[in-house]
Amino acid sequence: MEQRLSARGSAARQRILQAATAEMAETGDIEVAAVARRAGVSVGLPYRYFGTRSGLLSAVVSDFYDRLGEAVTNREFEGATWHDRERLRVAAWVDHLYDDPLAPVVLSRLGGDAEAVVIETQRLHQAIELGARNIARGQRDGDLPLDRDPELLVAAILGGVHMALAIALTRTPRPDRTRVAAEAWAFVAGAAGAGALDRPEPQT
């Protein structure tokens, strides 16, 4: 629900958003009255800024993906090759999700809220688009083989790694993040064919 807000209104909206994020991370759901209590505001104020419960949930999910994008998806990593850059990206991906208390809830799905599902789908398609350009760059640079469709490859990688992380994040105790990052990178590198160009031809 877009509107021009005063500094006071922006602060109140952000406080409600933070309260909703904490509520969802702790309970797996959002109940507006509980969010209002946590934020220290009237029950009606979340509706003023977010319209509906679904609007508030969508804002929480959007904020989650904004943070993920800033830390991982939209970030440029330093490295001479695709392999160097993307290994750092996968480690950052795992670290960020391990440290974000909302990640287990979002990655394990959100109970079918229609507006939140739309947000998730939009963000997934954006990530696939960015990832496909990334793969294509690696192919142009000669770091990756040309026999893989970038868009299909990235869709498979995102789905596989997100599912693996959803499982890891909900285990008790959680597996060591370094090991998870190493296994995730092995999957990504294998799927993309990183290093395949360096393998010697089999002897006949």
Q: What features would you describe in this structure?
A:
The structure is a single chain. Helices cover 70% and strands 0% of the residues. It contains nine helices and no strands. The chain is elongated, with a radius of gyration of 20 Å. Mean pLDDT is 92; it is low at 199-204.
Which key features would you list for this structure?
disordered C terminus; Tetracycline Repressor, domain 2; 9 helices; single chain
Mean pLDDT: 92
Principal-axis shape equals: elongated
CATH architecture descriptor name of the largest domain: Orthogonal Bundle
Helix tally?
Answer: 9
Distance between the termini: 65 Å
Quick rundown:
The protein has nine helices and no strands.
Give the helix/strand layout.
Elements: H1 7-27, H2 32-39, H3 45-50, H4 53-73, H5 82-99, H6 103-107, H7 114-140, H8 150-170, H9 177-192
